[in-house]
Write a structure and sequence with these properties.
Elements (H helix, E strand, L loop, with lengths): L1 H14 L14 H19 L7 H16 L8 H20 L10 E8 L6 E8 L11 E7 L8 H8 L11 E6 L10 H16 L2 E11 L1 H12 L6 E5 L6 H8 L7 H10 L14 E5 L5 H13 L5 E5 L10 H15 L7 E6 L6 E2 L2 E6 L6 E8 L3 E7 L1 E8 L12 E5 L2 E5 L8 E8 L2 E4 L24 E5 L7 H22 L5 E3 L5 H6 L1 E4 L7 H6 L6 E2 L3 E4 L2 E4 L3 E9 L2 E8 L7 H4 L12 E5 L11 E6 L14
Helix pairs in contact: 1-12, 2-3, 2-4, 3-4, 4-5
Length: 653
């Protein structure tokens, strides 16, 4: 017990140097607390009586926003107490309307706060809508939608977000356009779970409103501009256009320019920068219009300048609107120029099936560009390229780099090819004949390289890195996960203390930084249904965690009572722990993670450009060095698994 106490004291001392994000709230007077608690209980009872409906989330966002602020001391100013009281009034009004079968907010124009239940952690996440005055339910038309990513706000609790969205339409309200304001799970530049928030919110909006898939534009400013750069570049094939304002577009140079930080990354961090650096994905804007905005004297103009340089290297010239003599804001004369450009693009709309595709990625997490899909890479974290062009009415020319398998996927009407002739697909100079499109002009075909020769797909046995199952550790938190605590005794008291502290830290920080309650069970409570539905985050060692004990022999890294062994190197199990991500041997369609939540920490909360994966696929941790605001302990070994999830001699350097 003394070992655990000393460990936790050391941990809290190490973290004390960083300011807390979010900050501590102000005291809530006893009388106000009593009113809020009473109102929460009343609203909770009303919600419990509601029939199951997607609209329940639109009620729960008000309940949960107040509950979170009250439970976790997240009233940052005294006037937010009134916001909470107002939120309870709206929540009760909605509950009453839904109970009566007359949810007035559901199809009304104006400023509308809504919500959805996230697949990741079952939390209710809010989003805001600006529904134009011209909107009519069942009008038969489809609507343009602009997404808006907000700027950095360390006090942007759920309560403050829904209050803002109920009173302000935001920076831009294009004519006849629904504007979707993303919460993004707080203050992470829409990365990881914040990235997933966009797609879950979009799915929710599409259930309620007829959205034109070919007229969706991603926009944002400052931290939101960084999100627009990243989301725009990584998912370029989905959007009619991207319109980033300021922000950051990569990590290393931005930190030097913005805050004079001397960046000293490890070798694996340099590789992991390729996950989010939009500059690495610049060529993807060949297929999607991008219109950048910067203030002329804004330090964050650096983001657009870096993207312009990256695009120029690909032979592309970036449209860059610059507000004259303007710092960190939109110049009033620049806004109509920007809007006119985006309106013209939206009028034309996205082409989902262009004849020519240019696509790059470094990871199968981002593996699609319109009708081209990367299925396997030769090596993760090195640049992969697929350039494909339809030639004539029965040919496709393809050039690849660092790709072992890919697909073409055209929906009905998409394939501009002769349906009566086989298609000659020339891949890196090799000719492969593929079946023609079906009569509806849909076409799906798969290619693989074996022994240096391209051919039509053949089934491959065994584990392989694939989309959504490619690591690194943080990738497990893009989807449903379950934290599994040990009920047994650790083989090493020191490592057991490290596990206890780090599991508590992971659960706490998931709520603080990604605004949900991590789902947690003891190892003895985990069911087959849990294993089927979740990435399992196993805390402990093979002695203390029953689930880890079941799979330990099937992992590529050995962890015995004596040692943690990686590639023949042995580290004493008395004072070394293991962090790892791997396909779960009990369900290879899901991950198993050992002893880690998301891997960026308190120091990284202070600048969004640092909120990126910090560990690769595995790491050995010397627990004699306590965790601090940057690391989970001293990392003595770390690396990436290969494309078949095998150990690599040099860790993938």
């Amino acid at each position: 017990m003394r070992i655990v106490s000393l460990f936790l004291f050391s941990l809290s001392f190490c973290f004390a140097a960083e300011k807390p994000v979010p900050p501590l709230g102000v005291p809530v007077p006893a009388a106000d607390r009593a009113v809020l608690e009473s109102g929460l209980a009343e609203l909770s009872a009303m919600i419990a009586k509601l029939p199951e409906s997607p609209l329940k989330a639109d009620v729960r966002v008000y309940h949960d926003a107040v509950k979170i602020a009250l439970t976790y001391n997240e009233f940052f100013k005294a006037d937010e107490i009134k916001k909470a009281k107002d939120a309870l009034v709206i929540g009760k009004e909605r509950a009453a309307q839904l109970a009566a079968g007359k949810p007035q907010w559901a199809q009304s124009p104006g400023l509308i706060v809504r919500g959805y239940v996230s697949k990741i952690d079952k939390s209710v996440q809010p989003y805001g809508l600006v529904v134009p005055p011209s909107y009519r339910e069942n009008s038969g038309r489809k609507w343009r939608l602009d997404t808006w990513f907000h700027g950095r706000g360390e006090t942007l609790s759920e309560l403050n977000f829904i209050s803002d969205r109920g009173r302000s339409p935001g920076e831009f309200t294009p004519h006849d356009t629904i504007v979707l304001h993303l919460y993004g799970r707080y203050c992470n530049a829409n990365k990881m779970a914040g990235e997933v928030d966009l797609f879950e919110a979009l799915d929710s909006v599409k259930k309620h409103y007829p959205i034109d898939e070919n007229r969706i534009i991603v926009r944002g400013f400052s931290m939101g501009g960084a999100a627009a750069w990243s989301i725009g570049a990584h998912y370029a094939g989905l959007w009619a256009a991207a319109a980033p304002g300021a922000g950051f577009s990569e990590t290393a140079d931005f930190l030097k320019v913005f805050q004079n930080e001397v960046v000293k990354p490890t070798w694996w961090e340099i590789k992991l920068w390729h996950q989010y650096d939009a500059t690495d994905y610049a060529i993807n804007f060949f297929n999607t219009p991008v219109v950048a905005y910067s203030g002329e004297i804004d330090k964050q103009k650096q983001a657009a300048d870096m993207m312009a340089k990256a695009l120029a290297a690909e032979g592309l010239t970036m449209k860059h609107i610059i507000g004259p003599n303007t710092a960190h804001k939109y110049h009033p004369d620049s806004k109509p120029i920007l809007n006119a450009s985006l309106d013209s693009i939206a009028d034309i709309g996205r082409d989902p099936y262009p004849r020519k595709i240019r696509f790059t990625t470094f990871t199968l997490r981002y593996n699609k560009m319109k009708w081209v899909v990367a299925d396997e890479l030769a090596k993760h974290w090195e640049r992969a390229r697929i350039d494909a062009e339809i030639t004539g009415d029965s040919g496709v020319d393809v050039k690849t780099v660092n790709v072992n398998a890919f697909s073409f996927n055209f929906g009905s009407g998409g394939a501009k090819l002769d349906p009566s002739r086989k298609v000659a697909v020339t891949i890196d100079g090799q000719r492969v004949l593929a079946a023609p499109p079906l009569t509806d002009r849909s076409w799906a075909v798969h290619f693989r390289r074996n022994a240096g020769k391209w051919g039509l797909e053949t089934e491959q046995a065994g584990l392989r890195k694939r989309h959504g199952m490619q690591g690194p550790v943080d990738d497990a938190f893009f989807n449903a996960f379950l934290m599994v605590k040990p009920t047994g005794t650790a083989q090493s008291p020191a490592v057991g203390a490290w596990v206890a502290a780090e599991s508590a830290h992971a659960i706490t920080e998931w709520r603080r930084q990604f605004r949900g309650e991590a789902q947690v069970k003891n190892d003895s409570e985990v069911t087959d249904a849990d294993i089927a539905a979740n990435n399992l985050v196993l805390w402990g060692d093979p002695s203390s965690n029953k689930i880890l004990a079941r799979i330990a022999a099937q992992l590529p890294v050995k962890w015995t009572a004596d040692a943690v062994e990686v590639n023949g190197k042995k580290y004493s199990a008395a004072d070394h722990g293991l962090v790892l991500i791997y396909p779960n041997p009990l369900n290879p369609k899901k991950y198993v993670v050992l002893n880690s939540g998301f891997t960026f920490r308190e120091y990284d909360y202070l600048n969004n450009a640092r909120q990126i994966p910090k560990l690769p696929d595995y790491a050995v941790v010397d627990t004699r060095t306590p965790p601090d605001s940057r690391w989970t302990g001293k990392i003595v070994d770390a690396g990436f698994f290969g494309e078949k999830w095998e150990l690599l001699a040099n860790g993938g350097k």
